[in-house]
Amino acid sequence: MSPALAVDDVEVVVTLPTFRRPQQLLAALDSLAKQKTARRFAVIVMENDDEGKEGMRAALPVFESGRMSGLVIVAHERGNCSAYNAGWHTALLRFPNFTRLLVIDDDELADPLWLETMCKAADSLGVDIVGGPQQPVFADPAHQAWATHPVFAPPYSTTGPVAALYSSGNLLVSRHVLLTMGPPFLDLRFNFMGGGDSDFLSRAGQKGFKLGWCAEAKLFETVPARRLEPDWIRARSLRNGVISTLVAKKKYAGTAFANTRVFFKSLALLAASPLRALLRLLVTGSPSVAIYPIHVALGRVMADFGYANEQYRQPEKN
């Protein structure tokens, strides 16, 4: 914990999970230190590698020196959802008066106005949860055209209330949402697949919490070259389909013919996907963009037969 941390004064908590990216973690922390806001905020770094602890060792001097207000914890159970759950639970335990919790990942950099813009959007839109864009940053400027690919593009382009949110990569959650949803916030069945955030947001929407999107609150996500390889794009697209099925089954659980309804919707999407792919090809001229709905529909159907693409099991390939 940073020295002289006044936990009662903290209005906003920022959670930052990390796994074997010490240099990127330091860059993310530096971007948070440059936030232009009068709001008193603290950062919780969740180290999810309890063996190497590279992130913890990199971050500790930043907090111990007082350059960053907050604390570093170790989430001993490996997995994306476990790290988020540890950070969000710690926020509730350690900071009794915060009203909003924000999320940034260790491969992202925050715009200097990010925190303030997200909080203002929650106020102006009158919503409980706000999502924002993760703008991809490619090492080679020639790859910038990939930013419009469905795997990287944000779900919305304008600010306003929305019916659904899908990612925690750039997120604001009000304290009362966390208290109502209760721990564990993210379902550990999604730990190595991803999608625990999508499921959490779906369940929050079902409980009546209002969702919004803030197009101006940008985070900049570093995209490694391997994520432009066809195998990675295909795997991520199939995974998105799997997550869609699993989230839908949880959403309709307890209703009549829930699994059957989800399965037949998946079949319908698969049947329509070649036409959707052709239309995308005509509009974009990109085979990779065109085939995306086919891969997503295949992933939806494959999920009913036990397929699960746990990309986070091998972080070096993600």
Q: What is the radius of gyration computed over CA atoms, rounded to a whole number of angstroms?
A: 20 Å
Give the fraction of residues assigned to helices.
40-55%
Q: Please give the domain count.
A: 2
Low-confidence stretches: none
- Report the CATH superfamily of the largest domain: Spore Coat Polysaccharide Biosynthesis Protein SpsA, Chain A
CATH domain topology of the largest domain: Spore Coat Polysaccharide Biosynthesis Protein SpsA, Chain A
- Strand-residue proportion: 15-25%
Terminal-residue CA separation:
31 Å
Write the layout of secondary structure elements.
Layout: E1 12-18, H1 22-33, E2 41-47, H2 54-64, E3 70-74, H3 80-94, E4 100-104, E5 108-110, H4 114-125, E6 129-131, E7 134-138, E8 160-162, E9 170-174, H5 175-181, H6 196-206, E10 211-213, E11 219-223, H7 230-251, H8 258-284, H9 287-303
Parallel strand pairs: 1-2, 1-4, 2-3, 6-10, 7-11
Antiparallel strand pairs: 4-9, 5-11, 6-9, 8-10
Helix pairs in contact: 1-2, 6-7, 7-9, 8-9
Characterise the protein shown here.
By secondary structure, the chain is of the alpha/beta class. The protein has 2 domains: 7-226, Spore Coat Polysaccharide Biosynthesis Protein SpsA, Chain A, CATH 3.90.550.10; 230-317, no CATH class. It is built from 9 helices and 11 strands. The protein has helices spanning 22-33, 54-64, 80-94, 114-125, 175-181, 196-206, 230-251, 258-284, 287-303, and strands at residues 12-18, 41-47, 70-74, 100-104, 108-110, 129-131, 134-138, 160-162, 170-174, 211-213, 219-223. Strands 3-2-1-4-9-6-10-8 form an 8-stranded mixed sheet, sandwiched between helices. Strands 5-11-7 form a 3-stranded mixed sheet. Helix 6 (196-206) packs parallel to helix 7 (230-251). The longest helix is centred in the C-terminal third of the chain and has 27 residues, at 258-284. The protein is globular, with a radius of gyration of 20 Å. It starts with 11 loop residues before the first strand and ends in a 15-residue tail after the last helix.
